Amino acid sequence: MSTVCAVSTPLAVGGISVIRISGGDALSIAGRVFFPFGEKKVEKMQGYTCAYGEVKDKEGRVADDAILTVFRAPHSYTGEDIAEISCHGGIYVTKKIYRIILEAGAEPAGAGEFTKRAFLNGKLSLTQAEAVADTISAEGEYALSSAELTKKGRLFKSIEAISESLVKSLGELAAWVDYPDEDIPEVDERELMASLKSSKAALEKLLRDYDSGIVFKSGIDTVIAGKPNVGKSTLMNLLLGFERSIVTDIAGTTRDVIEETARLGAVTLKLSDTAGIHRTDDTVEKLGVALALDRLEKCRLMIAVFDISSPLDDEDRELLEKLKEPGRKCIIVLNKTDKAQNVDKTGFESYCKNVVAISAAEGEGREELTDMIEGLFTPEDYDPDSTIFANERQKLCAEKALGCINEAITALGSGLTLDAVTVTIDRAAEHLFELTGQRAADAVVNEVFSKFCVGK
């Protein structure tokens, strides 16, 4: 493979920038542009060592003083020789040094190039490589924890154990079918069925973990609902910690769905501040209310807001009835505690046991609301020590494998020939190999790494 380079830190003003060079000619190219102070030569540097010196262009003009770090193959991130130049973190100087390295013979790295090389050189499994992207994009503790477990190989080992069981069964079936004249024991169908059911149970657990864990990884779809002017936008701003929604005393100010992400402790919420739910003849308001009702049907968490300073009306009661619908977690927020209270708080608990009184305008009650949200999404919903699939590609591979295993179990149970059973087991194994990258086609590998940022 060619020798490539890229800026591995964000291209923005900061303390330092790092330009990474990887490939067979990494050290020789680094030696053409980086000149250590003293008699040390880049090509003679040992792995895991640094040198202080200057970066110069081909005319010998100094671009910056910098530090060069060397990692020698195979003990590097990519498994190749790597040279990293740490320079001052200015945008212009970083781009200048990058151009100097390209002029010295390196090629620009593509998206995810370094992690892709780590995969191709056997430093990472495909699931571990995808977990690198998850670590970078993690927006909460659960997402980071899951990415770390996967990066350490937890998912790969889980899938590998299932694959090995399937391959063992395939080996026994192939030996018995292909070599009938040899003294090979006949396949025990009861043991084969037990093995298939064990693989099925293991895959089903991984898929269950994904379905429950993805809300922590991607964020919990949350809708803030209520009548106009009950304080929905003020509450959203309170949860975000900055003003995102426009707040006025005019009812109906919010007419569209406003979306933002808020991190509350270990939980990430994908917040939607919706238009006030009420009856209206205004065409634009009707569209906003329709969008709000649609979001309510799809959300995983509904925060229903009520103005505790005003008596409840029919529209409030209609919203309360929606809290009884199954399959959704909910919290009732009784807002405006800083004003005279005209509502009996105890009556709300018959609709939802999670009731909190706050004053969003005064910034009071955020901590209590955060604790309540965290309490709704706990390890009983998702075990943070489990590992989940990094993306839909992995999940789809596992689902296909599970489907094939179910076919094999049905075929075996209905008395079909072992040849038919073998075909479905072989397909299941192929789907799992595709998941881990052990037999992934080039198209799948390229698709995975195309989603990485350049420089990683």
Properties at a glance:
alpha/beta, 18% strand, Rossmann fold, 6-stranded mixed sheet, 7-stranded mixed sheet, Gyrase A, domain 2, 13 strands, single chain
Could you explain the architecture of this structure?
- The chain has 456 residues and is an alpha/beta fold.
- It has three domains: 4-109, Probable tRNA modification gtpase trme, domain 1 (Gyrase A, domain 2, 2-Layer Sandwich), CATH 3.30.1360; 133-214 and 391-439, tRNA modification GTPase MnmE domain 2 (Four Helix Bundle (Hemerythrin (Met), subunit A), Up-down Bundle); 231-376, P-loop containing nucleotide triphosphate hydrolases (Rossmann fold), CATH 3.40.50.300.
- The protein is built from 14 helices and 13 strands.
- It has helices spanning 26-33, 91-103, 113-120, 126-137, 141-151, 154-178, 189-218, 232-240, 283-298, 314-322, 366-376, 392-413, 418-436, 442-449; strands spanning 4-7, 14-22, 34-36, 49-56, 62-71, 82-89, 107-108, 220-225, 258-264, 267-273, 301-307, 329-335, 355-357.
- The strands form two sheets. It has a seven-stranded mixed sheet with strand order 3-4-5-6-2-1-7, covered by helices on one side. It has a six-stranded mixed sheet with strand order 9-10-8-11-12-13, sandwiched between helices.
- The model is unreliable at 245-256 (pLDDT under 50).
